[in-house]
Amino acid sequence: xxxxxxxxFVVHIATVIMLFVSTIANVWLASSTADASVGLWKNCxxxxxxxxxxxxxxxxxxxVQAFMILxxxxxxxxxxxxVFQLFTMEKGNRFFLSGATTLVCxxxxxxxxxxxxxxxxxxxxxxxxxxxxxxxxxxxFCFSFIIGVxxxxxxxx
Length: 157
Known about the structure:
With 157 residues, this protein is an alpha+beta fold.
């Protein structure tokens, strides 16, 4: 049981770190021909980054930014709740609050990345492909679902 709890804790910390990296890094779309990338916050080339995203004023991008930030917040809250429940909860109880908070994080990732996929990932032409930030966000989506379900099933022994 201790090994399972430690494993879930490590995967949860890894998910928090990957969520931070995927939200902060500006490589949601990467150029196939030049050293350029597009992220949630900036447009970067091999020389410098600029705040001039061509679609920065669109509400969809602001929604993606908001949901990715919310997913980080809920993931960190779920981790803190898990640690709190680990030391204060009675034996035999389940980690319902941790699981529910992690599934809210999962839902925020789902909404944010799905909106980005439908609006921006199918970039005009074939000059861009998915960057590592975009792929990390989908990996966090999978991990947060698995962690949330395991928290809901897990009992403290």
